[in-house]
Amino acid sequence: MKQKPKIVFLVCILGVIIVVLFLVDLTVGGADITIGDFFNALFGEPVDKYDRYIIFDVRIPRAITAILTGSGLALAGLIMQTLFHNPLADPFVLGISSGASLGVAVYTMASFVLVGISPFFSMTAQVLAAMAGACFVFLLILMFSWKINHVISLLIIGIMVGSVASAIINILQYFASPEQVHRFVIWTLGSLAIGWPQLLILTPILVLTVFLSFLIIKPMDALLMGESHAHVTGVNVKKTRILMIIISGILTGILTAFTGPIAFVGITVPHVVRLISGKVVHRTILPLSVFAGALFLLLCDIISQLPGKATALPINTVTALFGAPIVVFLIIKNRSLKSSF
Amino acid sequence: MEPNNGNRELLVTRSLSVGYKSSYSNITLLTGLNLEIQKGEIISLMGPNGCGKSTLIRTLTGLISPIDGVIIIEGKNISEMPSSVKAELMGVVLTEPVFEKNLTVYDIVSMGRYRYSGWLGQIDTTDKQVIDEAISQVGLKKKVHNRLSELSDGEKQRALIAKVLTQDVDLIILDEPTSFLDLPNRMELLILLKKLAHKMGKGILLSTHELNLAMQISDKIWLIDRQGNLNRTLPEELILSDILDKTFGNDHINFLPQTASFELVPSNNYQIYVKGKGILVTSVSRMIKRLGFIHSEDEKTSNMIIETKEGSFKSIDNGKEQIYFSLESLQEFLLTKANE
Hints:
heterodimer, A: 341 residues, mainly alpha, ABC transporter involved in vitamin B12 uptake, BtuC, globular, B: alpha/beta, Rossmann fold, five-stranded antiparallel sheet, disordered N terminus
């Protein structure tokens, strides 16, 4: 009972910061738009036509994407860390994002193999290619997880899948034209700039998956003791494990397909949350990770827009520049990491 | 406690075989087991390393499936039970360490209320009462909010036992609960288990290597011998029979029924008689045995006599007398004697 007000308190603080950052995020970018413009537009006051377009069709979707992606990746990372009992696991360990990368690589650099698809570049086709790749690996991993009893074997399979995918991507890059390679590299740098139609697909899937993750908070807490301990406590370990893979796989697959592989959110945020809350049980750190992930990526998005009118930094570089020092700091400072090795 | 009451049985096995299953072949370690555990009794499972103790425990607790036969708890076959139902019928304390060392004692103990708590793991007043009670029963009240990494091995073990207590089950199975503990902690733990069995009526099965302690607290001993037979005896029957000697004894170690302990087999034929009174005689006798001599009961047939007095020892060896003022110098003499 003691810790309960503390979670609510932390969630409230995170919520307020997220709202503030959301508003700040609307004001940064190529065009000069103020908070005032935003509220004017919101309440139907006359606003410049282009400004209105930028607010409603560029910046608001981008900020929402940052929130969804940040929370989804943080959640997927947390689940992977629990599944593998490994503090350095992230959403990409199962190789699902590598599958997405392979899909995009095939589409951008070897579209000749995809019979029937127009050779012209299309955002939708690129997302579909990424999803196809992610789905393929996801089903493969799911099939293995049914057969395999040792979770470490799954980790190794994930890493192998990732290696094979990057080998194929390297071959494709070797033979591709510079423009094709460039287009692929741009995708790997990540982008939160997606439009309403994509958000309409992304949002319900994400909300549903996050809700689903709340249903396995209790078994995941028991899994912290280890699988045998969880089993004798009454947990259906296999079912829980498969649900964890499904949830994390869907989150990682769909987010990578829409935004590219955004690193460091999934590995960093759960650790920061553990450090701040002083807790390891999921009923505390799962909701906090969802909120903190949204906050982290919103912040990264604001920073990526800071160069101003001329250009924006790729989001994946900002998360890494931010995330890497945090991971290093935690490894030195945090006792929970040390004792896990 | 009427002896022929059928529903005191908590766990029964019928022609149970345990071992490892692999894709090539099954390796059976124990076979034809018809065991039972009753309410209010504490049973120690013993046997040499590799005899199948752990495998039997893991099979009885449903972590691995039997090669053959059935395990029945409260009339139901456990191989058909989901883990949640098994947890309602038995509490299990495993020997492997808990993975996440940052869990607190309270986190661990409250996991025992898994089937009672809400979908997020939230607990009500009854749960809290049960948890508090279990924690104080194992004497961890002052460490409720300590992390596992801050506990001693004995405290960790007790936290896991408290978790099992909150499960509110009659049957408790523990795999080597004493293995990482020092002597006082081992004794304290076994006394706690004995209390749970005799005062609270739990049926307890534990595997252990602590022969001496196990014989002092157990109502029954299940001893697996080298041939893979599981012998069910009372601790005292064990002393009377030669099973222990056959199971654990070898060319270097003998089981002595008189002291219910193991002793080194003498490495030479030299017989020494120790004369004197009290604890000094005991300690010199121990030294003699430790150095491989035969401790003689008869002054006349012995090869050597050692007289113990306050502050000095005298050896009479073929009429040759020598005096020592410390155990250390006596040992020095005996060592040269042993090497002759």
